[in-house]
Every structure is written in structure tokens, then in C-alpha cells.
Structure to design on (545 residues):
């Protein structure tokens, strides 16, 4: 498999060098190749994990499978390329990957300066707080003068300091060199509070001797919108990636699941019929098959199924939907209509 | 008495007697998610009031929750298997629930009309038909499938209640409405007065 990835990515680089930017047609390349090359993180619980048998799973991985299903009709026609935080952007701009699906925060600089486009948001992360259950704290405003541990060199340090200052919380920040020492300090109660991104807190909590002895507060004090990224020079491909993301969210809203997507073809609801390609002819306008969205949902389920299986109630992480709940259910997850 | 039965198919076979009474249940069966835990009631099995869901996603916890409903309102999301007690400031106290067949039959707004501790249980005729081994009446107590507390919803047959089968929390189950572990329903009971608004929501259907 690794050889295949090497050969394929080598071919792409050659293609890119030979043809230049003007010829960028990633969708055509993917179809011709018969497989999607997806950049994922090197290993992040719930988001991208590689099992001993080489099989990838996770929230970010499932997006790649959905994209492969929508473009190629099969969730298995995808090669995963693990990329570290420092090499991910180079991998994308140098065309070693077709899409980056790796908990990456959408910022101005990453679009305007690096020449990328974010294809939407599929996970609203943000900085949160974890406390010991017996402290009975239920809000970040109740932290008071307790000591709060944070990892050095992360944006969390400044953000927490700002938050405490703005809200007149006299908390004492304790800065630790790395993630393990931060968790260890929390575990032995050297600090009563620990702060980092919410997804990170849920992952770290699992490493405690008794995870239930710690509580993650619902407060989110910063914006870390995560989503898939494409190169900005190929808007056609960008649109495909963007609408696959929208389709997964839209499917949840319509009630289309991996279980009922086949029956959905006989639905009497126009929205549902258009979504699964029973009418409307929308897929071909993206350069895809009529049933592109149905294929994506059949492969990995709708947004809710993907979320709950990988990071939600059916996963070890158990992260509540929170901001990632649909807009109609109190969250901010919103997708324009497929019509 | 701890016999488990694949009662749903048996019930479907027996079919259509008492059609009017069963109509709501039938539509429920059609809508019910496929992972329904086909577990019959187990009267006599003891679960005490101390039992709470302690760990994992179905443990009682404060979560981010924005709602147009006023603080104090109870919101039941059947497809999520969660019950939310709305709190001020975009949050809610969330409880894991099990949702029974009758829990899927009705959505909208009701009010808590009555509260009872260790409620008695009179299984309705359609339930007796599904699970003929059930008693015709059972006094309240730790072995009662209604569990430690019940919140009766409006003038309907729907209720939020405890259970003597705490392992069914997080699942769709074959009978009952909305069940919480006994310790959790006691916690909810102390926070929710008679007259509280209860909003019941299902996931969308194709």
C-alpha cells in the first residue's frame, strides 16, 4: 500500500510539474486514477487512527471515505497519507494529497497566504476546561483562584489568561512543558483545573486512572473551526469537497441515514428525493453521479452517525454534540440546501 | 421472572386485535430505529434508588445546550436518547434515557401533571398481550419496572420513569416511554415540579 501511495503521489507530482497550475483538474485526476489520496493526521484518537491491520478509522478518515464514495462510488477507493502538523500544508500545495482532512483550523492566513480554500466546517472545536468532579465547579466563571494547568507554547496559555482577566477570575495559571506533564499535574491535583481544546480534553481525560473523576465544563472560550482543505487553484474540486461536507450535514437534517438511504429513493418528500438523486439531476452539475450524496451516506452515514461513532456517544471519547449540534437543535452546524 | 422474550415479532403476529388501542403503537413500531433492544420487562428484578449512570456519555452531566425553551423546561430527544433539563446560560443538565415503543408515538409539548414515588404499575392490556407473563398489577418498589419515580405527562399515558433495568439506558427498548436509571430519575424528580413544560422531539423521518 505504501508503495502504491509513493508511486501514485510521484505520478501526481510529475503531472503537476509537467502541466503547471492551469491544468489543475483534481476531480479528473481522481477519477482517472480510480482512487482518492487523502491527507490525515498521523494519529489522533477519534479523528484519525490506524489499526494494527492497517485499516484507518476516525472522524477525519470517514470524511475521506464519504468523498471517495461520492466521487468514485466506493468508500474503499482511498489511500490515506498521514501528514504531521508541520508538513500538512506542503503536502497539499505540492499535490501529494488531493484533500487535507486533518483537524486543521480555518484561518485567514491559511487561505490568503498559503493559497488554500477551506471547504466548510465539520467540527467546531475550541478551548475548554476540565475540573475534578469533587470540586463541584459547573462553569468556568466559578474557577475562582484555583490553579489552572496549561501546556507551554500553545495558544491556550494566552487565551486562558485573557479569559480570566476579562471575567475577573483570579485563577493562577501554571505552565507545564508538554501534554503528559500537564495531565500528570492535573491528575495529582497540583492544579485543580486543566485547559486545552475540548477535543483534547476528552482525549486526555481517557488517560486518567478514573476518567469519571474529572468533568469537562461546557464553556468554550475560543474558536477552532476544523474542516477539510483544498488548493485554491481548483474551484471545481473545491466545490465537490464542500458539497460532500454539506451533504453529510444535510442528510442528518433530512433524516437520511446509512440504514434508510436506499428506501429514501421512494420517499415522497422532494428534498429527500433530490438529495438521493431520484430527481433533480444535481450530481452531474458537480461532475458526479446522480446518487453522489446517497453513496456518501451509504458509505459512512450522515453527520450524526459519523460524529457519534467516532467522537460521540458510541465512541470512547463521548464528546457531547454541543456547538456541533444542528442549527435547528441549538448548535451552529448548518448546511445550504441540496437543490 | 427474568425471562427475556423476542416479544416484538410475537406481538406483530398476534396482530390486529384491539386495533384502535394499538394504532399508536403500530406507527411507533414502524418508526422505531432498528437497533431496538428487544428485551422484555423483568418485574421482580431489583434495582435500588442508588443506581445512577456513572460513566460514559449517558452519565448525567452539564452540557452546552442552546434552546428557545425557558430554563426549567425538560426537552426529550428520543433519537439521541437524551433528556435535557434546560438551565440558564446556554446549558442543560443532560440525562441518558432509554426510549420505549410508546416514547416514539407522540411529539410536542406536554406538562408534568403528577409525580409519584415508587409508583405502582398496571400494565395496559396491549402490553399484557405482548408479554403475557406480566402481572396485572404490581405495587411500587425496587423490583417494579417503573422504578423509583414517575413523572406523568399531561393526560397521556406517557411518562418519564425509573427502571429496574439500568443497562437499557441509551437504547430503544420494546416497552415503556422514557426511562432513566433510578438514581437519575430521583435527581430529576427533585428538580422538576408539577406543571413543568416537557418538549418531546423525534429525529426527522424520510
Amino acid at each position: 500500500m505504501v508503495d502504491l501511495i509513493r508511486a501514485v503521489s510521484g505520478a501526481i507530482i510529475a503531472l503537476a510539474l509537467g502541466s503547471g497550475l492551469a491544468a489543475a483538474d483534481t476531480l479528473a485526476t481522481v477519477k482517472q486514477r480510480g482512487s482518492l489520496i487523502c491527507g490525515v493526521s498521523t494519529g489522533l484518537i477519534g479523528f484519525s487512527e490506524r489499526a494494527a491491520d492497517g485499516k484507518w478509522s476516525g472522524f477525519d478518515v470517514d470524511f475521506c471515505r464519504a468523498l471517495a464514495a461520492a466521487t468514485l462510488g466506493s468508500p474503499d477507493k482511498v489511500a490515506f497519507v498521514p501528514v504531521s502538523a508541520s508538513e500538512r500544508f506542503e503536502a497539499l500545495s505540492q499535490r501529494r494529497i488531493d484533500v487535507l482532512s486533518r483537524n486543521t483550523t480555518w484561518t485567514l492566513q491559511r487561505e490568503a497566504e498559503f493559497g488554500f480554500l477551506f471547504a466548510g466546517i465539520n467540527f467546531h472545536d475550541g478551548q475548554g476546561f476540565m475540573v475534578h468532579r469533587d470540586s463541584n465547579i459547573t462553569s468556568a466563571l466559578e474557577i475562582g483562584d484555583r490553579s489552572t494547568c496549561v501546556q507551554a507554547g500553545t495558544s491556550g496559555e494566552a487565551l486562558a489568561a485573557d479569559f480570566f482577566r476579562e471575567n475577573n477570575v483570579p485563577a493562577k495559571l501554571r505552565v507545564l512543558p508538554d501534554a503528559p506533564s500537564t495531565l500528570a499535574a492535573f491528575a495529582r491535583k497540583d492544579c485543580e483545573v486543566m485547559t486545552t481544546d475540548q477535543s483534547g480534553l476528552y482525549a486526555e481525560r481517557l488517560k486518567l486512572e478514573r476518567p469519571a473523576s474529572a468533568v469537562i465544563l461546557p464553556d468554550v472560550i475560543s474558536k477552532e473551526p476544523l474542516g477539510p482543505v483544498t488548493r485554491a487553484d481548483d474551484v471545481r474540486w473545491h466545490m465537490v469537497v464542500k458539497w460532500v461536507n454539506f451533504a453529510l450535514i444535510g442528510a442528518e437534517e433530512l433524516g437520511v441515514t446509512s440504514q434508510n438511504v436506499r428506501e429514501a429513493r421512494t420517499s415522497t418528500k422532494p428534498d429527500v428525493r433530490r438529495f438521493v438523486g431520484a430527481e433533480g439531476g444535481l450530481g452531474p452539475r458537480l461532475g458526479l453521479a446522480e446518487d453522489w450524496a446517497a453513496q456518501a451516506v451509504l458509505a459512512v452515514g450522515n453527520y450524526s452517525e459519523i460524529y457519534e461513532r467516532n467522537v460521540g456517544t458510541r465512541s470512547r471519547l463521548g464528546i457531547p454534540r454541543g456547538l456541533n449540534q444542528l442549527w435547528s437543535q441549538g448548535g451552529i452546524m448548518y448546511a445550504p440546501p441540496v437543490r | 421472572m427474568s425471562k427475556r422474550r423476542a416479544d416484538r415479532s410475537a406481538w406483530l403476529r398476534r396482530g390486529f386485535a384491539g386495533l384502535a388501542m394499538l394504532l399508536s403503537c403500530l406507527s411507533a413500531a414502524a418508526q422505531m430505529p432498528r437497533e431496538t433492544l428487544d428485551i422484555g420487562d423483568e418485574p421482580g428484578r431489583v434495582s435500588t434508588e442508588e443506581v445512577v449512570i456513572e460513566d460514559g456519555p449517558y452519565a448525567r452531566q452539564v452540557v452546552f445546550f442552546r434552546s428557545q425553551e425557558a430554563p426549567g423546561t425538560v426537552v426529550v430527544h428520543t433519537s439521541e436518547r437524551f433528556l435535557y433539563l434546560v438551565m440558564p446560560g446556554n446549558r442543560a443538565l443532560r440525562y441518558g434515557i432509554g426510549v420505549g415503543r410508546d416514547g416514539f408515538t407522540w411529539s410536542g409539548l406536554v406538562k408534568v401533571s403528577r409525580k409519584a414515588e415508587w409508583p405502582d404499575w398496571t400494565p395496559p392490556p396491549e402490553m399484557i398481550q405482548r408479554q403475557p407473563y406480566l402481572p396485572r398489577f404490581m405495587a411500587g418498589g425496587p423490583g417494579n419496572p417503573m422504578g423509583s419515580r414517575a413523572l406523568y405527562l399531561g393526560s397521556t399515558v406517557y411518562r418519564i420513569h425509573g427502571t429496574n433495568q439500568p443497562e437499557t439506558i441509551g437504547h430503544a427498548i420494546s416497552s415503556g416511554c422514557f426511562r432513566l436509571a433510578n438514581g437519575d430519575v430521583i435527581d430529576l424528580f427533585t428538580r422538576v415540579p408539577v406543571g413543568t413544560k416537557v418538549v418531546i422531539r423525534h429525529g426527522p423521518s424520510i
Notes: Confidence is low (pLDDT under 50) at residues 1-34 of chain B. The longest strand of chain B covers residues 108-117. Chain B touches chain A through 27 residues (CB under 8 Å). Strands of chain B lie at 61-64, 74-77, 82-87, 91-96, 98-99, 108-117, 149-153, 159-161, 178-179, 197-201.
